[in-house]
Amino acid sequence: MKKLLLMIMLVAGINMLANAQTKMHKTPEQKAQHLTKMLNKKLVLTADQSVKVKAILFKRATQMDSLKANQSTTDRKMNRMTRKQIMMDADKEVNGVLTATQQKTYAEVKAAMKEKMKARKGAKTPAAAPAVQG
How far does the signal peptide extend, from start to end residue (predicted)? Predict the structure, then answer.
């Protein structure tokens, strides 16, 4: 009985590891579609705004994917600066499409997403060792 249970656990563990490594990555089109849909819910975009925002987000996702593909050839600092610049440019373009009230809501949405990312990033890193005072 113990051997059977051990074998089942082993097979289940191997299956989980195999599935974890085959994570599907979204295409730039899927990323842009998802973000546009989310922004459309939060900002109540018009049809014209939605089309423009999707084009901007598609361009951003394409640039980010090409940056990830070339990541091994460039240094990390330059890569981070380029990523920030792409994000800032896309934000400026999106803000240009939005009305004043939508811009305010968009800023709030971005701040909330940033906090969520910080919380997720903080959960991944191990807690720092407490400083010894003496």
Answer: 1-20
**pTM value?**
0.70
Tens of pLDDT, residues 98-129: 999 999 999 999 999 999 988 988 877 655 55
Which residues are within 8 A (CB) of 101 and not within 5 positions of it... i.e. 6 or more apart?
Answer: none
Query: What number of other Cβ atoms are within 10 A of residue 130's Cβ?
Result: 6
* 37 within 8 A of 67, measured Cβ to Cβ: no
Which has the closest alpha carbon to 38: 50, 26, 25? 50
Spell out the residues 6+ positions from residue 89 whose beta carbon is closer than 8 angstroms to its own: 60
For 99, which DSSP code? Answer: -
Domain boundaries, the chain: 25-102
Query: Burial of 36 by CB count in 10 Å (0-12 exposed, 13-18 middle, 19+ buried)?
Result: buried
